[in-house]
Amino acid sequence: MTAINSLALIALKCAPNVFDLSSDMTHASIRDQVVRARLLARDLAQLPKPPQSVLVVGAGFAGVSVAMALAAQKIKVLVVEVNRQPFQLQSKVSDRYVAPFMYEWPSHNADDQSYPPAGAPAWSDDSILAGLWDAPAIATLKQAGRDRGAWRKRWKRLHGVRSHGPYPAEPPHWDEWFVRELRGQVPLPAKELARRARARLLEHLAAIPPTSAQLKILTRVDADAIKRFVGAFAKQMGSWYQSMSSPPIPGSYRPWQHLRVATGVDWLTSQPEHNVPCDVDAVILGGGAGPERVELDAYPFKFDAVGPAAGLSFWDNDGWLGASADDHVGVFGAGDGALQDALRALTGHKHPLMTIHAIRRDPRARAALTAVEPELAAIDRQNWLAASWTQVSEEKGKPRFHRGVLDEVLDQRCRAIACRLSEQPGINQAVADILLAGTGVVYHVFQENYFTKSYLLNRFLLHLIDVCQPPGGRLAGKIRYSSMPDMAEIRGYARSVVSARQGYQRADYRIWLKRRYSLSYFSVPMHRVAVRYGRLHPDSQPGHQLLGLSSEKIAERTCLGGVPYPHVAEPMP
Ligand SMILES: Cc1cc2nc3c(=O)[nH]c(=O)nc-3n(C[C@H](O)[C@H](O)[C@H](O)COP(=O)(O)OP(=O)(O)OC[C@H]3O[C@@H](n4cnc5c(N)ncnc54)[C@H](O)[C@@H]3O)c2cc1C
């Protein structure tokens, strides 16, 4: 079989032997990052002269995955991380839930909460994710435990166990069966996923003989020291390449390939280390997307302001799942994070997969949904193609398809399906049933007039909720979704001290909005806000900071990015 070299497709090559798995990534879930990282490792190991020693910057899912896969190919790897432990980003949040295939909806395995998927015996996977979803989370067990009686009845019915005998020859043990059945019921809280990933990584590191020292993870490393080394390495590697037309032979190290980390902590042994020596053939950046922008622009006339209108980062505990449905909630942004938050505020569900399941519980709604799923799947395929192919809007005066145009077209199609579906019997009631009972409103405010980069499930659910509500009103007794697109100006401030007493960040916010083509602002009072504007600034991404990368040049740095996406075909029936 011919191995296709996919280096250029999966990682941004920023300099000779310097790859960036993280910068400018949109539409990349944890699982996507793990897959990309493993493909990069595979391709590096298959080079005619593979690197012998690699520095990986960042111990998130991408960094750890590429490191494990390279070490498995007998390539020496040093991972340097600024935080105190790997997977730090997901380690704080217990009310965000992660499922391995959630973004594949409506494909048949979107529901599978096991990795590798339960029904795919031929799929061998030794990645950091393998087996992490296998046991239900404690929270899931506790929740199901409250309903233990019903589960026990099901166990008895399924296995012919009667209360007063006779028992079947070998009934499966009740406790084991209970835990096994719950596997795959609910996605894992992000914090639990990170904890399990760390446990798996520790096992992996402990199994490496100390003499081979194939993979080492240093935490609490000084960010400036990393930056200095990576910058110098990329620059020197570039000049070497220019003069010699090839990189140095792996293993024959120049002085600028000697890394000395001033201080760090060996994560396996918890021992501090000083002046760790390392000779490096290649550098892989897995520093993530950098800090998020979570604050609205300030309103100029804020006489009664005590602070900004600011929410929390996506991977922080916001307490929204238990929050009041009588609140006025503001969700800002048209991307996936915003859509997820709007859905959480409307349904109180841990995860959009649970929302779609709840709708499907009604037999008429299930039949209607099943009928439109092939059309939705076709839209999803278009969406994925658009995500990877369309970066360029205009080149040398020739207008080309812009990503936004495609997003808009796909979004309109998705909404049209939701509209058709809302006319089917049973759908309106099923949607009413998933909404929280309350007098609250979820204001979803964004600049565009369509949802931008979002996965299909979230996009579809919000459109469905929107079209099922009476125009300008709410479904009886239920929290209301109020979509506010086309806002040219979105500003705000807090008028009272932010309080976390109710378990979530709550304040008296005053939000000022100006519609496109309008001259005046109008204001909306809100109690809770989530600002999902993506990264703080392109230059705040670790990859940009380490190497001074520019987003402007992204089309030149990727293969597919430079190829315009020609047409949007009609979705297949
Ligand atoms: C709003 C939003 C919603 C999302 N929702 C989901 C979701 O529901 N499900 C899902 O699967 N994914 C989701 N994602 C994507 C997910 O967060 C990423 O795919 C994943 O975290 C990327 O992993 P990573 O290893 O590339 O980066 P990160 O997880 O960010 O890890 C980067 C690591 O590098 C370290 N680091 C940074 N700079 C340096 C430096 N200079 N030197 C050394 N170390 C450094 C950091 O401390 C961190 O440990 C979402 C992302 C966003 C922004």
Automatic annotation (TrEMBL):
<dbReference type="InterPro" id="IPR036188">
    <property type="entry name" value="FAD/NAD-bd_sf"/>
</dbReference>
<protein>
    <recommendedName>
        <fullName>FAD dependent oxidoreductase domain-containing protein</fullName>
    </recommendedName>
</protein>
<keyword id="KW-0560">Oxidoreductase</keyword>
<dbReference type="Pfam" id="PF01266">
    <property type="entry name" value="DAO"/>
</dbReference>
<dbReference type="GO" id="GO:0016491">
    <property type="term" value="F:oxidoreductase activity"/>
</dbReference>
<dbReference type="InterPro" id="IPR006076">
    <property type="entry name" value="FAD-dep_OxRdtase"/>
</dbReference>
<feature type="domain" description="FAD dependent oxidoreductase">
    <location>
        <begin position="54"/>
        <end position="180"/>
    </location>
</feature>
